[in-house]
Amino acid sequence: MLRMSKALCAALLCTPFLCVSAQTPKPLSPKALAPKPLPARVQAAKPEPATPAAQLTIHTDRPLHAVSPILYGMMTEEINHAFDGGLYPELINNRSFRWAWRGAEHWNLALNGNAAATLTQDKSTGPSKALPASAELTVTNASIGNEAGLSNTGYWGIAVHPRTTYKGSFYAKANADLGPINASLISDTTGATLASAEIPLHAGDWQQYTFTLTTKIVAPSTANHLALTVTHPGHLWLQLVSLMPPTFNDRPNGFRPDLMQKMAGLHPHFLRLPGGNYLEGDNLADWYNWKETVGPLVDRPGHQAPWSYWSSDGLGLLDFLNWCEDLKIEPVLAVYAGYSLKQVHVTPGKDLEPYVQSALDEVEYVTGDTSTKWGARRAADGHPAPFPLHYIEIGNEDEFDKSKSYDARFAQFAIALRKKYPQYKLIATTPVKVSSAAEPDVIDDHYYKTPSGMMALDSRYDNAPRNGPKIFVGEWATQSGDPTPDFGAALADAAFMTGLERNSDLIVMASYAPLFTNINPGAIQWHPDLIGYDGLKSYASPSYYAQSLFAGHLGDTVPATTITGANSRFFQSSTIDTKAHKLYLKLVNASTNPQPITITIDGLTQSVTASVNTLHAATYNSLTHVPAGSWNYTVPALTIQVIDIPLH
Ligand code: AHR
User: What is the secondary structure of 390-408 as a DSSP string?
Assistant: First the structure.
């Protein structure tokens, strides 16, 4: 919804035409905002007595410090079914036939007419060392009209769009002529075949088969399944059955376009990868062993992820890097540091050496040229050019390691990484006591807070020492809203971001977490999450729009400012784009009363027209007249505003 407050517009003497053409982030979705009640904490806050005008003075001619050019970015991990069946849009669930006591989850026998078959696991044969087992379909009766096979239910169904081509593939081995394999997308509700293909099958050893399925005019829906059937008796072994929809930029093994577009709308500069807890795993055996996530899919075994489900590693290390490349951003590479979540750690010293070597190899895989072992491997995997890299993070949330082994683990990694790669900045996940050779360049602070807790953090860094490591706020979120943040959370998020910007000499980067959630029942392990989706659609939350607005209107310099007399839930930051001669004035009024302010912009010598970008329970944008000298203005209650003021 894009609309303007008529009262504000009239008061500010701007024309509706100009108002509508104001610079604006994407309009808020009514679904995302309108029906969401504000959290109790905000609603219940006692209305504060009307305050006299606050005094805000911005000294545009007194620069305090530069803004970190990479301040806003993203953090990711496999949580809430973010990757498999989400951003990594594989439609087949359990494509590698992992067997549970009930059988292969998400797979069923598909028997037409009087066909007869059984489905079992064969642990003795598979197409690769990484996938040594397979599903064995034993067909005892099948013919045309009496097809036998198996079907997959997908991730909460298989999303089907009209006039769309899906790329399919599978590995198969057959002991006899079973006829061609028929691959069909079938509606769960009507039984109608929405698309199908016949794939000639050869009796003999493992072989990969590919096919495409193209839909005609069908209603978009997720209530569909994929069936693979044959028409003759015999034994058929299957492994790695895949069906991929179109991807962003048509990248093979790529990403879901709507989610990529939403990420681009956040104006990010970096991606912290691959986690989070996902880096650590619950147990040592579950650590993010990146070498098992690269190369052909058939050589990726997958691994147990800490958020209770299996990761296919279809989205592996090179895919994370491709994701960065697609969005024109840089990776912040987190390397496993020998600690897993269930309080298990690798003893520093000899035992830790293989993990340190893995991290060195990983950096070489990301950045090495093709004359290096791992740079050559990356080229063989399809990406000869090295990726840009500036920051390496060692571990994740190691303050939770009760053995207190992080100082020694960090030092061992830092010294080895610095020796080979002195050019990269090293991030510690908590402050460490180490020798000067191992001192971290940056500390990663994480904050998950209530709205009032997050607002209190707005000033956390205002007086923090500037003589130690820089700060990366690698995870932060106001926790209000389920599954995605409500507007109360967005207000507190915006309040916190004003603090990030004011202190962006110290804070080099910040990334909200978690980024994604699949909103289907049972998919969510953590809320709130910035962007929600199901198989067909995605939506952005109020916090998303607040972040998009802040990151999309960020200057390069923080000017000196003073503010007095504002209510306790009023927050502000100013940055100047020195090339564009523009002041980005961010005003967040999280109180239930409007906040009048007298704004003085020192250095503004003539009146100008400024764009007012507003996020409110219902959003509207407008223009406003900014006189030279002092300017009386009111920030509405429960409102985030960013005002773009040309400076002449
Ligand atoms: O963002 C969710 C989790 O919160 C991350 O995996 C972990 O680093 C933190 O505890």
Answer: -EEEESS-GGG-TT--HHH
Query: What are the tens digits of pLDDT across the range 632-646?
Result: 888 888 788 888 888
> Is pLDDT larger for residue 22 or for residue 430?
430
Q: Which two tokens stand for residue 607?
A: 């009146």
- 276 Cα to the center of ligand 1, angstroms: 5
Residue 624: pLDDT band (50, 70, 90) is low
Contacts of 532 by beta carbon, 8 Å cutoff, 6+ apart: 483, 484, 516, 517, 518, 519, 538, 539, 541
**For atom 4 of ligand 1, which residue has the closest CA?**
276
Give the nearest ligand 1 atom to 514 CA.
1
pTM beyond 0.85: the answer is: yes
- Residue pLDDT, tens place only, 164-192: 999 999 999 999 999 999 999 999 999 99
Distance (angstroms) between ligand 1 centre and the Cα of 275 equals 8
C-alpha 85 – ligand 1 centre gap (Å):
21
* pLDDT (mean) for 44-50: 49
Question: What is the C-alpha separation between 563 and 558, in angstroms, rounded?
Answer: 15
pLDDT digits (tens, 9 = 90+) for 85-105: 999 999 999 999 999 999 999
Ligand 1 centroid to Cα of residue 307, in Å, is 10
The ligand 1 site (C-beta within 6 Å) comprises 77, 79, 275-277, 396-397, 475, 513-514, 526
Contacts of 146 (CB under 8 A, 6+ apart): 112, 113, 114, 115, 231
Task: Encode 596-621: b = buried (16+ Cβ within 10 Å), e = exposed.
Answer: bbebbbeebeeebbbbbbbbbbebbb
For β-strands 621-626 and 557-564, DSSP reports them as: unpaired
Query: What does each C-alpha distance from 632 to 213, 569, 624, 629 come to in angstroms?
Result: 62, 19, 11, 10
Nearest CA-CA partner of 587 in 617, 567, 607:
567
Rounded CA gap, 633 and 368, in Å? 54
Query: Ligand 1 centroid to 338 CA: how many Å?
Result: 17
Q: What is the pLDDT of residue 497?
A: 98
pLDDT tens figures, 402-424: 999 999 999 999 999 999 999 99
74, 509 Cβ separation under 8 angstroms:
no
Give dist(CA 386, CA 631) in Å, integer.
Answer: 51
Q: Which atom of ligand 1 is nearest to the CA of 446?
A: 9
Measured from the Cα of 277, ligand 1's closest atom is 6
Structural tokens at position 319: 């895919």
